[in-house]
Amino acid sequence: MTDLSQMSRDELVRRRDELSAQYDAYRARGLKLDMTRGKPGSDQLDLAKDMAVCLGPSDIKSADGTDIRNYGGLDGLPETKSLFGEILGAKPEQVIVSGNSSLQLMHDTVVRALLHGVPGGEGPWGKESIKFLCPSPGYDRHFAICEHHGIDMIVVALNDDGPDMDAIERLVENDASIKGIWCVPKYSNPTGTTYSEAAVARLAKMKTAAPDFRIFWDNAYVVHDLYDTTDALANILEACESAGNANRPYLFGSTSKVSWAGAGIAAMATSLANAKDLKRHLGIQTIGPDKVNQLRHMRFFKDLAGVKAHMAKHATLIRPKFEAVIEAFDSKLSGKGIASFTRPRGGYFVSLDTLDGCASEVVKRADAAGVKLTAAGATFPYGRDPRDRNIRIAPTLPPLEQVKLAMEVVCCCVELVSIERRLSV
Ligand SMILES: Cc1ncc(COP(=O)(O)O)c(C=O)c1O
After folding, report:
1. What span, in angstroms and rounded, lies between the C-alpha atoms of 263 and 302?
2. pTM for the full model?
3. Ligand 1 surroundings by CB, under 6 angstroms
4. pLDDT (0 to 100) of residue 1
5. E strand residue ranges, 18-151
């Protein structure tokens, strides 16, 4: 492969013409491919199809004798609390299992803090203007929660070993209006990054000007390995406790991409003081969660080993799709000095960085050729990628052949737009 910067103007023009012809040929095919949605494919959902029938008509009692059909059990069945405790790295009494969406738990946790404050704080967060740190590229829906509720967002870089801790420590030490940080600590959305032990320790220990600073630890991909090994992630609850900041972290997780997205179960884990406070609010909001769904999950998965065995089946289905993306990028983009990309070992996304200023145009061109990509900028607060270079690729939903074809088109667009940029200066 020749690095674009080594090519003469004539060579660049020739290559541009070749790529334009390829691009026109793709356009003429009237493709309709969608690489935007971080959703499980229906083959993945089928893996849990027996969950629909795994509760018998008289299977109505949880481990502690609770009738799952009735009100109550605000923070979840004992067995689901234990399972999520193991998944998230918490004691069962620190866990609240509620609803079907961890995003909803995150949203509600933020809103409760805005309205009522949190333990150790000085009243509702919403009484003054506050800020959250947003390691980026990151998850657009985290940023949407902040934007929707008027929380200012500060971008910090997400490096290969976690967020830029030097920047974070400096910011939180000096600004009491910074109340929180969004973290996807394992197989992060969209880069696949897992935070190093050092990053976790620094987050736990750092001095914050706000006494009620919180880490929103969204461990959405905790059991979502693509390979036989798993990335090690230090326990944030324990790290915060030993640093004397036990109330700092709120952990979140769900089975959305384990069982069924939208019909799974969601949970959070935190210090006992935080959990008590959350339950005080939760008890106003609901008389109890859907315990039938919780028991159905327990009957199907049984325990953590059951979850892990199930996730290995997911990996078998989706790993070839991830590998197709990486193979396309390796063979068509590597060595040309026009892009860099991640090689995730878990999670749901591949992150592609184009040359600065090219991502929006690549997304536009791909769209015109029938390949939908997540909007450029979506992985940054306010939808603004300051370098206009990041594109999130979601390979799980389309069938493998479509992933391969979509990536051919994307690679063609990346190279074409990069050459056009070069020729225009
Ligand atoms: C990082 C992250 N957190 C949370 C969610 C949504 O989780 P849930 O379905 O539990 O609301 C997603 C979905 O893509 C995600 O990528």
Report:
1. 17
2. 0.97
3. 38, 101-103, 139, 184, 189, 218, 220, 254, 256, 261, 266
4. 73
5. 33-34, 95-97, 131-136
